[in-house]
Amino acid sequence: MYKFEMTRPTTIAEAVAALSSEEAQALGGGQTLIPTLKQRLASPEMLVSLTGIDEMKGICVDDDGRVCIGGGTTHAVVAADTRYPALSALAGQIGDPAVRNRGTIGGSVANNDPAACYPAAVLASNATIVTNARDIAADDYFQGMFTTALEDGELVTEVKFPVPEKANYQKFVQPASRFALVGVFVAKFWDGVRVAVTGASEEGVFRWTDAEAALSDSFKASALDGLSLSGEGMISDLHGTGDYRAHLVKVLTGRAVSAAA
């Protein structure tokens, strides 16, 4: 590690002010940033810890029936909440107890790791990402591997999830990291089905639109018969080829539909 300063604001306004410096970087649960600092892949002069901001913590339901989760809420708290069961189950599969008690939903969504679990839930649920400056629809938010619509100094203060009629998340775990080798979140709403995939594509989380169309007509695993994805553009590494990941997407989508139904 190297020398840096740290500040711990207690309000969103204080955090935004602290992040106005080009040398400052936000620190949520630190599950990605701290290892990055240890490897000297990042070297901010100032870390702005978000753990003291109470207005960014907690879970509630708004007037539209959406489950609203503060950006500073830990995975463990999400896992213990029962108002969106599929999302709670997803949170309970993240990392290990140490990670779940430190990592936050806001940090995960802001980082947009291509193998993280939350982006699949956000995209499949058609959630809204709330920042200190604006509301961003999920379809507009994720813009590629580790890339989002967030601008400099913008914080994820809350994520608002519409609760579908049925939903399920299936994760093929990479056992060393506990990240998703492939993860699929299926959400059935009254007006159609959304399917979001994480861990598979070089472009990060994406929607499998062919599966969405088929499942909107018939919400059964058999509706996926005849569909397939190309391994081109999928991540290929020592854990699995692109073709293998493409195959897993279809298998896990079918399992998610069966479990949800």
TrEMBL record:
One of its GO terms (molecular function) is FAD binding. The keyword RNA-binding does not apply. SMART domains: CO_deh_flav_C. Keywords: FAD, Flavoprotein, Oxidoreductase. The lineage of its organism: Bacteria, Pseudomonadati, Pseudomonadota, Alphaproteobacteria, Rhodobacterales. Residues 1-166 form the FAD-binding PCMH-type domain. This is Carbon-monoxide dehydrogenase medium subunit. Gene3D superfamilies: 3.30.465.10, CO dehydrogenase flavoprotein, C-terminal domain, Uridine Diphospho-n-acetylenolpyruvylglucosamine Reductase, domain 2. It comes from the Bacteria. Pfam families: FAD_binding_5.
